From TrEMBL, chain A:
Pfam families: WD40. This is Transducin/WD40 repeat-like superfamily protein. Residues 260-274 have a biased composition (Low complexity). Residues 234-283, 427-446 are annotated as: Disordered.
Automatic annotation (TrEMBL), chain B:
Belongs to the STK19 family. InterPro entries: STK19-like. It comes from the Eukaryota. The lineage of its organism: Eukaryota, Viridiplantae, Streptophyta, Embryophyta, Tracheophyta. Residues 1-26 are annotated as: Disordered. This is Serine/threonine-protein kinase 19.
Length: 446, 255
């Protein structure tokens, strides 16, 4: 570490590579934090966690007992064990609010622009927008079914749409500016469990349904423009540059009448390649071009899609399914990169929240009672973070301090951080606010 | 769930066989391909070690989980299987024995099995049906995927001749196509006449897992385990062990 600082100082190491090296070193050595603890006051399983995107300071958690909590993760409320463990109590817990949710909260996300607002979705069919400072519900959207996930685009400059994934087959976009529903996206054949906005475009939305399909929607057009199919695969991170003879094997595409068809994994089309796979017989019905993909029954997983996470560079998408598989998709070509992550079982009834490090090298996946960290490109399991007593539902990686927050059915939120060396000498007493030189004292000393 | 592995039996252990690549290369270098990846070696080896079953004649097939247990890098296995599938050396079949079970069969073996099934069907029904030939020529050779849609199947078969609905039911009766619960519009390719083997796989898995579960510490020495015979499955212990090790239900520990 000191050598690297010296190298950077002398110019041998570029600042960017210095930063990435330190970050990746810290991210690959996560342990249950020995210096930070979040005191969770939830009485139900923690379903959703998110640290705000603007400052990286506040953690928002939603639980199954309709309570929400916000934690300040950078300033502790009090210290314990002689100042070694920082305990963070929630700033806000809200359970008996008269406008609050009645059933379990399944998702709680911050407004991407600042921490003044946050959005929650719950099994009581409502999506509520709250004002953080006054803890009042400012807006309420009623959905036709249980809300599984909501998402807002962090890149959006021209819209304030909340994408809602519910047990209804249609994905709804709620407009916060007007308080009404903007669009309805139909195409899934069963409830939708996962929804993510693209990290490269403010108009592209990705949804994963209980029917196993992952669809890409451009919200400015009707219908989805791409359905990911697990049998369309490419061998490697990116498809080969030369146009080889081994193209995608579904020959029905070659016979599709008069449609603009993308030719598959081995040639690159810029952005407009539509991957349509429709039967010859039904082409006789004149459907709107955007709705043709509603007949595309390709599945990305053999079960339901439980969680989606796009990498920050916007090039890859990770999807976890109830067939206990985690798949890495190349977004531009729409192909499965066939990276095999060794997973034995995943919980199949609830949606799970995945996390990826900023340089897309490690993916954290909640697998039953532990969180497994896999190397994204090779699929090898790097670490298994075992700490929860029951199933883990959600995890969030904070790139700011390279810490991982996980929440599970045991109502706890655990913090995983790179190990911090605890100095034992008593000269550090001026750091602690409460107990000066308490290290040498015993509990029953006078 | 663990089984214990003692070094004294390591000569018979599956893993050691994979390291001895040069020996197996001699017999395989007679074929066109001189380049072997680990997956190919493992496939050929497991095919050679496929257990003989008394009552049914089945061409050897390999379960995908068995490959995972012998080759370390699973991503490499997946990618090599994909390229072999595209080159039509192998066929992949999705089995209904579990969530994500796939069986791999070499093309020659599959064609042999198919011919046998077709012949028995034709002797039973006392007639020659051209649909089987159309199926082999047009569908199998042009569709390496494990499933096919209804419309596509009809269009590919019509290249051979006029297709009637009864022809598709013939294909299903012969065991060449099945439907699975996931999707009612898709037909899945299947290996004919392996129903009893599939039943043996599921029951053998259950029996082996319950055998280990009943032990005090849920573990057993591999040397002893290998010698046991499963009561409910016609397949041998090594087949099931590889399958369960690959799917993660069992693991081995060196002692």
């Amino acid at each position: 570490m000191w050598k690297e600082i010296g190298d950077r100082e002398s110019g041998k190491l570029r600042p960017n590579s210095f930063i990435t090296r330190i970050r990746s070193n810290r991210a690959s050595s996560l342990h249950l934090s020995n210096h930070k603890e979040l005191v969770s006051s939830h009485r139900g399983s923690v379903n959703s966690l998110q640290v705000d995107l603007t400052e990286g300071r506040y953690l928002l958690s939603g639980a199954a007992d309709a309570s929400l909590a916000i934690y300040d993760i950078q300033r502790a409320t009090d210290y314990e064990a002689g100042g070694l463990i920082a305990k963070h109590k929630p700033i806000l817990v809200d359970k008996q609010h008269q406008n609050g949710h009645k059933y379990a909260i399944s998702t709680a996300i911050w407004y991407p622009i600042d921490t003044g607002l946050f959005v929650t979705g719950s099994y009581d069919h409502h999506i509520k927008v709250w004002d953080t400072n006054t803890t009042q519900v400012v807006m309420d959207f009623k959905m036709p079914g249980k809300v599984y996930r909501t998402a807002m685009s962090s890149l959006a400059t021209s819209h304030m749409l909340i994408a809602a994934a519910t047990e209804d087959v249609q994905v709804r976009l709620c407009d916060m500016a007007s308080g009404a529903f903007a669009h309805t996206l139909s195409g899934h054949r069963d409830g939708v469990m996962a929804v993510e906005w693209s990290t490269s475009s403010e108009w592209i939305l990705m949804t994963g349904g209980c029917d196993g399909a992952i669809r890409f929607w451009d919200i400015r057009r009707a219908g989805c423009f791409s359905v990911l199919d697990q049998s369309h695969s490419q061998l490697g991170r990116r498809p080969p540059l030369a146009d080889k003879s081994t193209t995608k094997v579904s020959t029905s595409k070659a016979r599709a009448p008069q449609r603009k068809v993308g030719s598959g994994s081995s040639s690159k089309h810029s952005g407009t390649s539509k991957i349509l796979k429709h039967a010859k017989g039904s082409a006789k019905q004149r459907l709107h071009p955007g709705l043709l993909t509603s007949q595309d029954r390709a599945t990305a997983h053999y079960g339901a899609v439980l969680g989606l996470k796009a990498t920050e560079d916007g090039m890859y998408l990770l999807s976890a399914g109830s067939d206990s598989r985690l798949r890495l998709w190349d977004i531009q070509s729409g192909c499965n990169t066939l990276v095999h992550y060794e997973i034995v079982r995943l919980q199949t009834s609830k949606a799970i929240q995945l996390a990826v490090t900023q340089d897309s090298s490690i993916v954290f996946l909640p697998c039953m009672t532990s969180v497994k960290a896999f190397d994204v490109w090779s699929g090898q399991s790097r670490m298994t973070l075992q700490g929860h007593y029951e199933n883990v539902n959600c995890c969030f990686y904070s790139t700011h301090d390279q810490e991982l927050y996980t929440g599970g059915n045991d109502r706890q939120i655990l913090v995983w951080s790179p190990l911090k060396l605890i100095p034992d000498d008593a000269d550090e007493c001026d750091r602690r606010t409460e107990q000066p030189s308490a290290v040498d004292e015993d509990n029953w000393s006078d | 769930m663990e089984t214990n592995n003692t070094p004294s039996t390591s000569r018979k252990r599956v893993r050691e066989d994979d390291d001895s690549v040069p020996e197996s290369n001699h017999s395989l270098s007679l074929e066109d391909d001189l380049i072997f990846s680990d997956t190919m070696v493992a496939l050929h080896m497991m095919r050679a070690q496929f257990p003989r079953i008394d009552k049914v004649i089945v061409e050897p097939f390999v379960l995908q989980s068995q490959l995972y247990s012998s080759v370390k890098d699973r991503t490499q296995v997946d990618r090599e299987l994909e390229s072999l599938r595209r080159e039509k050396v192998l066929r992949v079949f999705k089995l209904n024995t579990g969530q994500d079970d796939h069986a791999l069969m070499f093309m020659e073996d599959y064609l042999k099995q198919m011919k046998r099934a077709v012949k028995s069907m034709e002797t039973k029904k006392q007639g020659v049906f051209p649909v089987f030939e159309w199926f082999e020529v047009h569908v199998i050779h042009s569709k390496p995927e494990p499933c096919i849609g209804h419309q596509e199947l009809l269009s590919l078969l019509s290249v051979g001749g006029k297709v009637k609905d009864e022809d598709i039911s013939l294909l299903i009766n012969a065991g060449l196509l099945t439907r699975q619960l996931i999707d009612s519009e898709m037909y899945w390719f299947a290996i004919p006449n392996i129903g009893s083997v599939l039943k043996g796989i599921t029951q053998g898995r259950k029996e082996l897992l319950s055998l280990l579960n009943r032990k005090k510490y849920k573990e057993m020495m591999l040397a002893i385990l290998e010698k046991k015979r499963l009561r409910l499955s016609p397949l041998d212990m090594r087949f099931h062990l590889r399958d369960l090790l690959g799917s993660g239900h069992l693991k081995t520990i060196q002692t």
